[in-house]
């Protein structure tokens, strides 16, 4: 058999070439391959060849519902071969076979990667053309075809992965270059804006000071986005390092609460802690994580209200040692169930975020936050309900003391 030499770049073209090869080598009149469709409720033709018909002609059987009592559907459902001496004696077969002059029909299941995926059939215009020996031979051919299809699909997936890796690499390099080039001029703009604010304040120019304050705020936001992109590049290239030192997580959370309370009047940031929780962490990075979580809580609670930050100490999951548990809870719009599993993905923003006017971002903050926590040996997850609010949790190894 020459099946192994067939092209595998396009699965449909591959199956068509395969049926032509089987028709020629086995000296049958018609060969067809029926594959289960994506919905899983029908078999569709992905390859057919007829010695008496020109290439490109419509197959005898283009689609077969699996709910029909057809013997071909039974082959797929049961995995058992089917042989009929004369199709005119089997009324459950599609009438297209008899109309095309087909008499004998032989069908076997097609298994790919251990999963039944379709049916391979051959037909002849001679009554009683197939025997049990032909059935055994077609079973061997089907096994070979299934193996080749599995290899073809693996090759296609590898090619897709390689293309995706190449795209990711180009994207990361582009983001890195753009971020580095943007950071310096934006930082300069922010610095000059701060100077102009001071001059406007000394001159008593309230309107000028207000405008400059907005400019400085937006420049700061741009710097934050650029820093996120740079962190993303560092994570992807494995260059994000941690500078760990002893820290009290309660003191760190207190600093974040005091800083962000000044940015909102509609929310009340409430910190709950039973006492100091020492840990060895990169203070700047964990503070970055908390700021991201609290800022998200503020953004996704448009009606205001309390945002609770809790820092506690708990026994580790293995019953040994201790861990710090931090939680940020809001009473905002919440996260839809279908978004929950994806909120930590790169560049992903939940539907609620896109629907809430004024909430913008790159969709990388939570991805970076979880990466930072996990690099500390901790975990991060979320619990949420639409219209009720969200609670983001993170754990970190706690130090003794």
- Percent range for β-strand residues: 15-25%
Q: How many helices in DSSP terms?
A: 10
Task: Output mean pLDDT.
Answer: 83
The total strand number stands at 13
Residue windows where pLDDT falls under 50 for at least 5 positions: 352-359
Main beta sheet strand tally, sense and closure: 6 strands, antiparallel
Shape: elongated
Helix content: 40-55%
Task: Give the quaternary arrangement of the chains.
Answer: single chain
TL;DR of this structure?
With 401 residues, this protein is of the alpha+beta class.
What would you note in describing this structure?
With about 400 residues, this protein is of the alpha+beta class. It has 3 domains: about 5-160, GAF domain (Beta-Lactamase, 2-Layer Sandwich); about 175-235; about 245-395, Histidine kinase-like ATPase, C-terminal domain (Heat Shock Protein 90). It has 10 helices and 13 strands. A 6-stranded antiparallel sheet has the order 3-2-1-6-5-4, sandwiched between helices. The longest helix is centred in the middle third of the chain and has 71 residues, at about 130-200. About 30% of the residues are buried. Residues about 350-360 have low confidence and may be disordered.
Task: Record the SSE blueprint.
Elements: H1 11-26, E1 30-36, E2 42-50, E3 63-65, H2 71-78, E4 82-84, H3 95-99, E5 104-112, E6 115-124, H4 132-202, H5 206-237, E7 245-248, H6 249-261, E8 267-273, E9 278-281, H7 283-299, E10 305-315, E11 322-329, H8 337-340, H9 351-355, H10 365-375, E12 379-385, E13 389-397
């Amino acid at each position: 058999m020459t099946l192994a030499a067939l092209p595998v770049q396009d699965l449909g073209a591959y199956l068509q070439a395969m049926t032509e090869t089987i028709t020629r080598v086995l000296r049958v009149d018609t060969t067809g391959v029926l594959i289960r469709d994506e919905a899983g409720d029908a078999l569709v033709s992905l390859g057919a060849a007829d010695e008496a018909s020109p290439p490109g002609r419509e197959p005898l059987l283009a689609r077969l519902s699996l709910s029909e009592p057809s013997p071909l559907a039974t082959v797929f459902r049961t995995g058992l071969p089917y042989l009929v001496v004369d199709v005119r004696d089997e009324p459950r077969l599609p009438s297209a076979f008899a109309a095309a002059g087909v008499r004998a029909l032989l069908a076997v299941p097609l298994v790919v990667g251990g999963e039944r995926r379709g049916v391979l059939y051959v037909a002849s215009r001679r009554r009683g053309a197939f025997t049990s020996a032909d059935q055994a031979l077609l079973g061997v051919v089907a096994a070979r075809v299934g193996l080749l299809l599995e290899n073809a699909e693996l090759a296609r997936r590898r090619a897709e992965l390689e293309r995706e890796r190449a795209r990711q690499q180009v994207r990361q390099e582009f983001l890195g270059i753009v971020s580095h080039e943007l950071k310096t001029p934006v930082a300069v703009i922010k610095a000059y804006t701060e100077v102009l604010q001071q001059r406007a304040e000394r001159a008593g120019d309230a309107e000028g000071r207000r405008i400059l304050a907005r400019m400085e705020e937006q420049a700061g936001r741009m710097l934050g986005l650029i820093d996120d992109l740079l962190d993303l590049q560092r994570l992807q290239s494995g260059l994000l390092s941690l500078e760990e030192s002893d820290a009290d997580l309660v003191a760190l959370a207190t600093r974040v609460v005091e800083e962000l309370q000044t940015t909102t009047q509609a929310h009340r940031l409430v910190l709950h802690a039973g006492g100091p929780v020492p840990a060895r962490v990169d203070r700047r990075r964990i503070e970055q994580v908390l700021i991201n979580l609290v800022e998200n809580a503020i953004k996704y609670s448009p009606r205001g209200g309390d945002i609770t930050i809790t820092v506690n100490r708990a026994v580790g999951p293995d019953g040994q040692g201790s861990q710090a548990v931090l939680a940020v809870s809001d009473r905002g719009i919440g996260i839809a169930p279908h978004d929950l599993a994806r909120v930590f993905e790169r560049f992903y923003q939940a539907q609620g975020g896109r629907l809430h006017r004024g909430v913008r971002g790159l969709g990388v903050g939570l991805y970076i936050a979880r990466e930072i926590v996990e690099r500390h040996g901790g975990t991060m997850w979320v619990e949420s309900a639409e219209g009720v609010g969200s609670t983001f949790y993170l754990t970190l190894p706690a130090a003794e003391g």
